[in-house]
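The pair is set out directly below:
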Amino acid sequence: MAHAPRQPPPKPPVVQRTVPRCVRGRAHGFAGSASEGIAGDDEGGDRVAGTWLEEHLVRTGDYTDSTSAYRAALDLSRLPEPPTAVFAFSDRLAFGTLRAAHELELPVPSGLSIVGFDHLEATELVSPTITTVRRPLSTMGSTAAMMLLQLINGEKPPAMHIQLAAELVVRQSTGARRTGR
């Protein structure tokens, strides 16, 4: 019985990940694990999304526990010049930051903008709805499967490190800062 020649799987997409810049020109506070996504700069400092990372605004904690972000946001609020925006490591941490803002009677987004990461469904169910970063999970899965099949077939994938574009989903938790804070 003759078999049709086996076609190689299509090459996985290789694109650059986009970095959200929805809070340009504002102080940035980071809740959660800040070690991810920070790239060193040739001038000796750290930059995130083209903005200098201010170490005194970075807070680390358990990225699965919204309570750690709640405590971090309360801590940041006590600074002489508290941040007007928080980029949380995950949507769970964004929920903790939102809880702190409500407790502090800090209006979101006019007093504090909040951005999460993961695009959990619950980000659409809270008030205000949370701006988040959506990763292309389906593309991630199919790309990983194609690479695995290539390895199983003794082929070398075109790249072992692939960056896929993420999408910023802008909602009610980000906006212009109210003056006179």
In short: Confidence is low (pLDDT under 50) at residues 8-45. Helices lie at 66-77, 91-103, 137-152. Residues 137-152 form the longest helix (16 residues).
